[in-house]
Amino acid sequence: MKVGIGLPNHVAGVNGPVLVEWARRAEERGFESVTTIDRLIYPGLDSIVALAVAAGATTTTTLVTNVLLAPLYPPVLLAKQLASLADASGGRLVLGVAVGGRPDDYVSAGTEFATRGKRLDAATAVWRRVWAGETVDGGLPLGPAPVTIPVLFGGKSSATLRRATTLGDGWAAGAVRDYPAQSSFADRVRSGWRAADRPGRPILQASLNVTLGDADVVEDGRRHLGRYYAFTPDYCALSVADMVSTPADALDAVRAYRDLGFDRLLFHPAVAGLDQVDRLADAVL
């Protein structure tokens, strides 16, 4: 199983230049991937820009959106941006997408919240056409093509199951340590994949929040998660409780998801201290 670490792009007030050092250190320490979390109305850094920075700072590291709130973006524009990032990075991009649950993000982006699922379905078809080099309006191709970008869908709804097994390349699981529930949905994805008569097998990707260090640092991480997910109290409490906070917890999570047959586990930092890269590497690599 591949193990990746998040860039701290979603931590409020993060110092942007740290992303370069973070990505380089992650590659040096042997993480397979770096990843981002997406959100509009929050004082963090843009997901695609953050991964572009990481692409320039690394040579082999996989770049993962986990997850991008794709319905916020015009599909043709997003298709070109992603194709450009995939091409510029030498084909290192993996796209995790979901619809999200914050109406304010959609209001601020000037797009509808209620129809975001339908628009994600339609956007996926547009992306595939653009990445294959097809024209959208009969004119010239819109970006680098052909490019191959695996698309993973996040969530646990019936719509997520349908998208992961018929439209995409697999599933991006949420950042919780409920291993039985994660395993159960992964089995549904595998079954749905076979029922759709898809070749091969779906990609299964999991994630967890992490803060390693002394008690004050760990508490800073919990406070971040409390602020970040405050809009949904139940999930907020679960995120805080499930945050990985010791090296032993981190290693146990790697072993658990590996045993469940997942292909990649991503650890999202809840603080922006560069030492988190080394602390996590020492624990799990």
Automatic annotation (TrEMBL):
InterPro entries: Luciferase-like_dom, Luciferase-like_sf, SsuD_RutA_monooxygenase. One of its GO terms (molecular function) is alkanesulfonate monooxygenase activity. SUPFAM superfamilies: Bacterial luciferase-like. One of its GO terms (biological process) is alkanesulfonate catabolic process. Keywords: Flavoprotein, FMN, Monooxygenase, Oxidoreductase. Gene3D superfamilies: Luciferase-like domain. Residues 1-217 form the Luciferase-like domain. Pfam families: Bac_luciferase. This is Luciferase.
